[in-house]
Amino acid sequence: MLKELLEQNRVEIYDGFDNWQDAIRGCCHSLIADGSITAEYAEAIIENVLQYGPYIVIADDLAIPHTKVNARGVLSNGISFTKVRKPVEFEPGNPTKNARLIFTLAANDMDGHFAHMERLSELLLDSEAFRGLQEADDIESIRRLAERLGV
Amino acid sequence: MVEKTITVVNPSGIHARPATLVVDFCKVYPCTVEVVKGEKVGNLKSILMILSMGLKRGTEITLRVSGENEEAFLDSLVAYILNLED
Q1: Which of B59, B60, B64 is CA-nearest to residue B44?
Q2: Domains and CATH numbers, chain B
């Protein structure tokens, strides 16, 4: 999955963002650039987090911004990876909701969404891959990680 | 150890938000809580594990609990999952 994301130019690295809303907008960048979503999708995700809380942080250091299938702004199924050097505080004051690894998911059908989730969670259950992404500081090191692990 | 087989009924299946709710529900229980789908067995206290199993609406799953008061907890877990809103 990582190799595929690299080939699709859907891997980006940022130093940090002023707040979690800007982080979500930034993490949508590569999917906007390739036409999978419009900027509206980032706003739909932000509204969802404001409504339901930071449930998109699903493990320590890991967030998966997304919202409903066929939300406004979704043009096709897509997934991107963003590494943020300075942890994004999805619930300021609660460090258990901080994340540097951010996979943004967009889906226009339920099967596509579940297929993404299954592949992504299998990748992240591999502790070597997870740790490697935490340590990676540039695109080249992510590329080497993907090749070394065959993921 | 006690177990019960149910079908996922909430419209969107057990995706990220419901998975978070199920994990929070199970975490307060001090013993082992697992979900079985076909040959896959996952820890119900791990969101990533739940998401890796693809628990869509209509999926048949077996819930497996072992520990103190396991029967009472299994009953409450079944009710909780069957009543997930979305």
Answers
A1: B64
A2: 2-82 (3.30.1340.10)
